[in-house]
Amino acid sequence: CLGFPVSIFFIVINEFCERFSYYGMKAVLTLYFTRFLHWDDNFATAIYHTFVALCYLTPILGAILADSWLGKFRTILYLSIIYAIGQTVLSVGSINDLTDHNRDGSPDKVAVNIALSMIGLVLIALGTGGIKPCVSAFGGDQFEDDQEKQRSTFFSLFYLSINAGSLLSTLITPTLRATECGIHTKQECYPLAFGVPAILMAVALVVFVIGSKMYKKVKPQGNVMLEVSKCVGFAIKNRFRHRSKQFPKREHWLDWASEKYDKRLIAQTKMVLRVLFLYIPLPMFWAVFDQQGSRWTLQATAMNGNFGFHIQPDQMQIVNPILIVLMVPIVDSLVYPLIKKCKLNFTPLKRMTVGMFLGSMAFVAAALVQVQIDKTYPVFPAAGQSQIQLINLRSVPVTVQFQPQLQSVEIQPKETTGYMTFETSKLQSAHIITTTRNETVPLSLQNGERYTLPLKWTPPDIYSDLIQDNITSKPTSGKSVVRFINNLRYTVNLTMGDMNFGLLDPLSVTNYTDVPKPDRVYVISASVPLNYCGVLSKRFGYGGAYTISIDSCIKNELSITYFEDMAPNTVHMAWQIPQYFLLTCAEVLFSVTGLEFSYSQAPSNMKAVLQAGWLLTVAVGNIIVIIVAGVSTIKKQWAEYVLFAALLLVVCIIFAIMASFYTYIDPNEIEAQFSKEEKEEDKKDHDDNEKEAEADSRM
């Protein structure tokens, strides 16, 4: 079709669906851990990076299976089946109603959800990692030797499908997650967010199978990674056997493999090891880069995503693929030629060094944003402390003295003191003074908790029971939460939009409830038989907490007062764009250049070894994040960002020093030299054989 093998269209569609499946699932994974499984940020980060590390370790297994045993087609087929099963298991594990037998909105046996989720993720890692080195190579196998131009176009289409799948899924699946679903209770719809990628993976599998009769299937020809490993292992073992001084030294330690392996393989292995040595510092870059899906997503949950339309925290990751699509052609066609025109020697290793530096600066930018976010965080009680706020629902000022002789405050009508912090052991009571009477309220507080004491007008009492707020952090859902106080003399049936709070007695308080769409306006209504009052709410924003008092109902107009218990997120998500821009620039200079450099410095038949080494650096980078998240005692997130920035800067300097000693080679010249020598040896052997034959004939 159009000069291309028809089979490659099935491969391109398969890759698009698979990448949509992977990146779509991965985009919402961190919030799934924190909001559905209720893991803390550090543990969620550690598990996320464990999964990513596994995804970059399994390609080595996939390559060995394909090249040494199953072949590329069967490897892709079998591992895709495992992959699709994993996506399905993960989707099922995210169903809230699976074990919610008491219908309270929380799984009764969360261990079942966790077990299914972990099994699903392991299967996904095995599938996506295992097929990673096979699909593009399998596509390349479909072309004949004289179809070099078509093969090049295929790879362009192939990588376009990867970017398209990544971009679309990162946009769509967070939107699906943000919708609400459920049988008994409505919550964020993770089954849908994981289910759509599972369906796309099933489609990818079906498309791949449909094209099976059209594929050109190359038989396994042995894995070069195993050959290189055996060569290196034999050289080390042989050197150890001949460690005595009586054996003469050899020019290179790999030369100790010459007893078993030919000179060409040893020379090729030397070239590969020179490049792999430069890979040693590279994991630190990936430790920084892959935190887009974990720490940076968690950072976005504490930010304001209003762009005229609401951006979900996990959708901010889309900035990276968008910038990649824009920047790669700009850098290749404009920046690099301009640098060359200025006669600057911007070698590949120098580009990678600059990329690492920009990656470090990206985390400095993230730290600066985090400092601004931290300024907006409420101060919660520390160990041994409690907090209490007073809300004056009366129409006259009230003075409150905290006993024994700790503090005195005066509160104006319909105002709040905000949360005041006390040593729990010292605070015993609150003495309330008005123009008509005085009252002492005993206070029994628990360490680390927040409380609210409403001061009400209903005689004879001017106060109610102390309310324990049960909120000592920003809302885990990322939304705002509201509660209502009935400041009327009679019971009302209270609703806000589709949320029904039921009958609310005089002076009673509802629990905090998530606002489903905090950027929307709702109708708040209070009704009694033969009477109805309503009013439009404000837009609550994200990450806030509000107490709303129902004050009066006159001529069907409801009068309410808002008390802000916790300010909503105010730092805008747009402030994350500079750090994404810096990190994307770093990726263009580091990742794209790194692979290009690696392939230019090693023989063509050794590219698989370098790809395995490159993927291994990604895995090790994620392991670094796991270690830091697991053992770090750093309390402030901005300080952790600075730590990673400093570590990458140090590694950048080390890499620059290592790169300065590197001598660029042309593997093709070395290969040509070996070919020439082999031809000469063959000719010599041929001449010797002819001479022997001639001598034999004379005899």
UniProtKB/TrEMBL annotation:
It comes from the Eukaryota. GO terms for biological process: protein transport. Gene3D superfamilies: MFS general substrate transporter like domains. The keyword Oxidoreductase does not apply. It catalyses: L-phenylalanyl-L-leucine(out) + H(+)(out) = L-phenylalanyl-L-leucine(in) + H(+)(in); N(alpha)-formyl-L-methionyl-L-leucyl-L-phenylalanine(out) + 2 H(+)(out) = N(alpha)-formyl-L-methionyl-L-leucyl-L-phenylalanine(in) + 2 H(+)(in); N-acetyl-D-muramoyl-L-alanyl-D-isoglutamine(out) + 2 H(+)(out) = N-acetyl-D-muramoyl-L-alanyl-D-isoglutamine(in) + 2 H(+)(in); L-alanyl-L-proline(out) + H(+)(out) = L-alanyl-L-proline(in) + H(+)(in). Residues 675-699 are annotated as: Disordered. Keywords: Cell membrane, Glycoprotein, Membrane, Peptide transport, Protein transport, Symport, Transmembrane, Transmembrane helix, Transport. It is found in: Apical cell membrane; Membrane. One of its GO terms (molecular function) is symporter activity. It is a multi-pass membrane protein. GO terms for cellular component: apical plasma membrane. The keyword Transmembrane applies. The chain crosses the membrane at residues 46-64, 76-95, 110-131, 152-172, 192-211, 271-289, 318-339, 351-371, 612-634, 641-665. Interacts (via extracellular domain region) with trypsin. Belongs to the major facilitator superfamily. Proton-dependent oligopeptide transporter (POT/PTR) (TC 2.A.17) family. Electrogenic proton-coupled amino-acid transporter that transports oligopeptides of 2 to 4 amino acids with a preference for dipeptides. Transports neutral and monovalently charged peptides with a proton to peptide stoichiometry of 1:1 or 2:1. Primarily responsible for the absorption of dietary di- and tripeptides from the small intestinal lumen. Mediates transepithelial transport of muramyl and N-formylated bacterial dipeptides contributing to recognition of pathogenic bacteria by the mucosal immune system. This is Solute carrier family 15 member 1. It comes from Cisticola juncidis.
